[in-house]
Design brief:
Layout (H helix, E strand, L loop, with lengths): L55 E4 L17 H4 L77 E6 L5 E10 L5 E10 L6 E10 L5 E10 L5 E12 L6 E12 L5 E12 L4 E11 L2 E11 L5 E11 L4 E11 L2 E11 L5 E10 L4 E8 L4 E7 L2 E4 L6 H6 L2 H4 L34
Antiparallel strand pairs: 1-18, 2-3, 3-4, 4-5, 5-6, 6-7, 7-8, 8-9, 9-10, 10-11, 11-12, 12-13, 13-14, 14-15, 15-16, 16-17
């Protein structure tokens, strides 16, 4: 690792929320799931010298409210029922959606299952049964920090199993796998099940390294309970040196899913974050959920090139088995105070009728903003206003933050390399360009 990775100093990790949730039926179903609140522009930035937020670009101008110039025909009753209404007293980029609260599965503990005690540590002392957390991951919690997992790998091989007083069984294993190019994987597996097999859990931890400087820390867990609820979760943290830029990179990711055993309900989430030592950052998430006759999706992304250019987007939509569909999406691009925002809110009714409202903003960097838009009900506007431009030119959580919260990853010790032996480096294809939009966008 060259001087570009000199920021890899070990530091304390921050804590995140515990992992314990599922889904239940509710009387009145809101329009969409608990959202990431993907309105990145509304975050409060830290203010430094001069009174301006760090990493935020302002283009001063007289503030002016957004006003519609044209007035179309009367808004339909269906449009009045639209939950993702654009507030014309505010910038249209601040459109928000109705949120679905966190919906836990009812997960009553079977009487035959062992009572869980403190989860950490699992691998010590020896000859005692590991304790399970037989609850699913929690929705919309993003990527946990490494300290929240309490990964504690032994330096020796273990192969143990046993039976508890209530008839439930458990096992614990650990070892080391070796491979070419200095590859080393230290791992631990543990699990258990109730006496009748109706409740079960498994968990695996690992740390990997090789002579190229690659390091990886990871967790995978899955389980089910007596009610038939099942879940799966994986978490990874990776450090490597990019062979094209010669910069140190850290990538973090998490996948989570849960499924109800008593009703048609479940959800899935994929989160990722990528950082390099010069400020390049990419973040995103894909989410899906279903509760009886309603399904919903959400995708969002952020990309910072480390030189002031920023791209953000989000796309959310939902549908019912009766044929109704609705959604909202937006995108913004900025560099040096100049950029644009655009978006659409839409609704398709069971009879096939469609309503939509599109909007856009052009920011010229001189205190002038061009705002325009229209809807299928006859609304239209096209105006230039004096308005301040605000956007985040830097991520609120960047390279220094992720290094400070990755002390266990950075402390992984690779195998000793013999004299005269050099790592084999595979450059592979050049890095892909950042996505400008979701893999699969809303059905507009």
């Amino acid at each position: 690792m060259n001087a570009s990775s000199s920021g890899l100093a070990a530091a304390a990790a921050a804590a995140t929320a515990p992992w314990d949730v599922m889904i239940r039926t509710i009387g009145a179903l809101p329009l969409l799931p608990t959202s990431h609140r993907v309105d990145f522009r509304t975050r409060k930035a830290r203010v430094g010298n001069g009174g301006r937020p760090r990493g935020v670009v302002f283009c001063r101008g007289d503030s002016s409210e957004f006003r519609k110039l044209g007035k179309g025909k009367a808004v339909t009753a269906a449009e009045k029922a639209e939950e993702w209404r654009l507030d014309t007293k505010k910038s249209p980029r601040r459109v928000r959606m109705q949120a679905l609260p966190a919906l836990p599965f009812p997960s009553r503990r079977p009487r035959s299952a062992s009572k869980p005690e403190d989860f950490y540590p699992r691998c010590s002392p020896r000859n005692t049964a590991p304790q399970s957390r037989d609850t699913p991951p929690k929705r919309d919690t993003g990527i946990a920090n490494e300290k929240d997992w309490g990964i504690n790998l032994l330096n020796e091989s273990v192969n143990e199993s046993g039976t508890n007083e209530d008839g439930s069984t458990w096992y614990r294993e650990s070892g080391v796998d070796l491979g070419d190019n200095g590859y080393q994987c230290r791992w631990a597996r543990m699990g258990g099940q109730s006496y009748d097999g109706s409740s079960e859990w498994k968990e695996m931890w690992w740390e990997k390294s090789d002579w190229t400087g690659y390091k990886e820390l990871g967790v995978e867990k899955l389980g089910k309970n007596a009610e038939g609820d099942s879940w799966w979760e994986t978490w990874q943290e990776v450090l490597y040196q990019d062979e094209w830029s010669n910069l140190a990179r850290i990538e973090r990711s998490a996948q989570k899913q849960a499924k109800s055993g008593t009703e048609t309900a479940g959800w899935y989430e994929k989160w990722w974050e990528k950082y390099d030592a010069k400020g390049w950052t990419e973040k995103g998430a894909h989410k899906y959920g279903k509760l009886n006759e309603q399904s919903w999706w959400e995708k969002w992304g952020e990309h910072y090139d480390g030189r002031g250019s920023v791209l953000k987007w989000t796309d959310k939509w939902a549908e019912t088995e009766l044929g109704a569909k609705w959604g909202d999406k937006w995108e913004e691009r900025f560099f040096a105070g100049i950029g644009s925002r655009q978006g659409e809110t839409w609704h398709v009714f069971p009879n096939g009728d469609r309503w939509s409202r599109t909007w856009g903003e052009e920011h010229f960097g001189n205190g002038k903003v061009h705002k325009y838009g229209k809807s299928t009900t006859g609304e239209s506007w096209d105006i230039v206003v004096d308005e301040e431009t605000y956007y985040e030119a830097e991520p609120h959580y960047g390279w220094a933050d992720v290094v400070g919260n990755s002390s266990q990853l950075l402390s992984i010790q690779p195998r000793e390399r013999p004299p005269g032996v050099y790592p084999e480096v595979d450059f592979g294809p050049p890095p892909p360009q950042p996505e400008d939009s979701p893999d699969a966008s809303s059905p507009t």
